[in-house]
Amino acid sequence: MTYTYLISNRKILPLIKIYIFTFIFSFVFASIVQAVPSKIISSSHELSATNSQTVALKSEVIVEKAYILLGDLFSNTGKKALNKVAYAPQPGKSSSFDAKWLYRIARAYKLNWRPLSLKTRAIVKRTSQVIYRDEIEDALAARLQTHGYRDNFEIELRQQGLKIHVAANEPATIDVDGLSINKSTGRFVANLLISANKPNAKRFRLTGRIHKLTQVPVVSRRLSRGDIIRKNDIEWITIREREIRRGYIQNENQIIGMEAKRYIAAKTPLTTSHMQRPQLIKKGGIVNVALINGAMRLTTQGRSLENGTLGDIIRIKNIKTKKIIEAKVTGASSAKVGLLRAISLN
To answer: Same domain, yes or no, for 115 and 139?
Structure first.
């Protein structure tokens, strides 16, 4: 019985071991079989999602910040969209990226994209705020006031068509630093700081000239030869002091009542060459000549031998006696003589 029992145990034990091994193997295999399909399914979902969202190039891009992101250039880049791929152009400027560069970027980030031709390109423009010339001049004028320039001056900048682009995400504030002025010539040099009060503010060098201004009287309408200038014909304009030529009349009292010598355009600063005292007596015209001696007044007529303005001494020929005397013009077609000269009229 003992021998038989041992034999039966020798046969049973291997079977038990095989049974246990088979059970464990089946359990592990079942677990693997259940796990693998889930992974395959999830992978297939990801693949199908990627295929459903085709990567496409954006041919025209607008950015605000200092870097161009992968998502700025390509659509459907997922989590890679925030990767920086290039520096953005300066504010207000544009950059062009050709097909070769774009393809290298796509390959570097394992994007399923390739250019259709070598002509493929992307244009990236950076948005900006614009600071124009008048704002710059206002900032300079405010700083010039601290250097003794108060009113009646004009700023001339050498930089024509000046305008400065500032990034859209930065404050467009202005400050002026390092202002240096030559008092005799008015020329200046200054540094323009944008954005003001920031440690990384950009500096722009400005050069120009300061002009002091003054006002001069001009005629407000076109005048023809012989026109008399009246008070309502005069208006004042502002010009640079350096532009005032020798002979410009700056007192309107020296203009009112004068006669235009020739055609004068409106807004023209006047000189003595533009005008003369009115011709009250024309050459060959009849003149009423008066002798005034105290309360006594005698008049006669003569013919003028020359033109005469108010206060001029002109020659007049007595119509009756044909004698010539000199008389002082006192008004239109009128003149007067002293007692001794009057004797020649008789």
So the answer is: no
